[in-house]
């Protein structure tokens, strides 16, 4: 298959940059990710990160090559990842519509990545129908967070309640005299989702060390629900637990909101 041969030539480091990639674990549901763009360090890193989630991935140089690649008619791609500087806004909507037809995808949501563009360029991207982004440096949690947003049926709606944003920091939680190490997946001023292989029991009262600059504040929270199976079972969230904060001071709530807003600015065009 021409698409496969061309892409393998651009992957001298041994990473297969072709066709529908297979993983040893069940991939996250809702079809593979389509990754466009020339071979580069960030492209190779994205392939590795997507496989580790795990998410099946197909890569192609451009729209033409992606259209020529054979896809699984029972599992068409639903998310398109591409470099921001490769987008031509004046023709993007037409190219995306053509790609949806060729791949049999009823819904293909684009996410651009790279350096944050200027104001006029952002407007042009939004006018072309691109809403989601991964601007600047980002980690695995931000990548998973954005893919989950793109796959959501409510991707174009503004979120209700408190705004959430992905995080990457590690911290500790406490309950009934015991300590548990956790990683923050997402945060809002009302609560968080914490990654851990052994969550606390639903309904448990816990204390969480919340990093604030050079300090760590101990705040009280309660476990709302847990995911003990993780992505291996096709769940969108990693193994862990959702918590709701006990009432916080107005100042602390505003500090968290400001941080979430700054992060969201890198995730939206």
What does this 3D model show about the protein?
By secondary structure, the protein is of the alpha/beta class. The chain folds into two domains: 2-151, 3-Layer(aba) Sandwich (Rossmann fold); 165-264, predicted glycosyltransferase like domains (Thrombin, subunit H, Beta Barrel). It is 29% helix and 27% strand. The protein is built from seven helices and twelve strands. The chain has helices at 2-9, 41-52, 63-68, 89-103, 119-127, 140-151, 250-264, and strands at residues 33-36, 57-60, 79-83, 109-114, 132-135, 165-166, 170-175, 178-187, 191-195, 205-212, 215-227, 240-245. The strands form two sheets. It has a six-stranded antiparallel β-barrel with strand order 7-8-9-12-11-10. It is elongated, with a radius of gyration of 20 Å.
Features:
269 residues; alpha/beta; 6-stranded antiparallel beta barrel; Thrombin, subunit H; elongated; 5-stranded parallel β-sheet; Rossmann fold
Give the CATH architecture of the largest domain: 3-Layer(aba) Sandwich
Structural class: alpha/beta
Q: Please name the fourth-level CATH homologous superfamily of the largest domain.
A: Response regulator
Strands across the major sheet, in which order? 7-8-9-12-11-10
Number of helices: 7
How confident is the prediction overall: mean pLDDT?
Answer: 86
Give the ordered list of helices and strands.
HEHEHEHEHEHEEEEEEEH
CATH topology of the largest domain: Rossmann fold
Unreliable stretches: 1-29
């Amino acid at each position: 298959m021409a698409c496969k041969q061309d892409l393998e030539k651009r992957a001298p480091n041994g990473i297969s940059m072709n066709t529908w990639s297979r993983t040893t674990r069940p991939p996250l549901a809702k079809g593979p990710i389509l990754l466009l763009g020339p071979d580069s360090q960030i492209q190779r890193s994205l392939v590795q990160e997507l496989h580790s989630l795990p998410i099946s991935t197909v890569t192609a140089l451009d729209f033409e090559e992606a259209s020529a690649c054979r896809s699984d008619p029972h599992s068409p791609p639903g998310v398109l990842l591409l470099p921001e500087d490769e987008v031509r806004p004046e023709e993007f909507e037409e190219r995306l519509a053509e790609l949806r037809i060729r791949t049999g995808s009823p819904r293909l949501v684009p996410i651009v990545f790279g350096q944050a563009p200027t104001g006029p360029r952002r407007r042009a991207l939004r006018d072309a129908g691109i809403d989601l982004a991964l601007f600047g440096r980002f980690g695995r949690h931000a990548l998973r967070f954005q893919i989950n947003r793109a796959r959501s049926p409510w991707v174009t709606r503004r979120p209700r309640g408190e705004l959430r944003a992905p995080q990457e920091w590690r911290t500790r939680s406490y309950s009934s005299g015991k300590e548990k190490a956790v990683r923050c997946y997402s945060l809002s001023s009302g609560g968080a989702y914490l990654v851990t292989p052994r969550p606390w029991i639903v309904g448990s009262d816990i204390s969480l060390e919340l990093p604030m600059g050079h300090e760590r504040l101990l705040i009280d929270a309660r476990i709302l629900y847990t995911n003990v199976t993780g992505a291996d079972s096709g769940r969108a969230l990693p193994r862990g637990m959702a918590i709701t904060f006990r009432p916080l001071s107005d100042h602390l709530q505003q500090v968290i909101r400001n941080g979430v807003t700054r992060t969201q600015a890198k995730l939206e065009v």
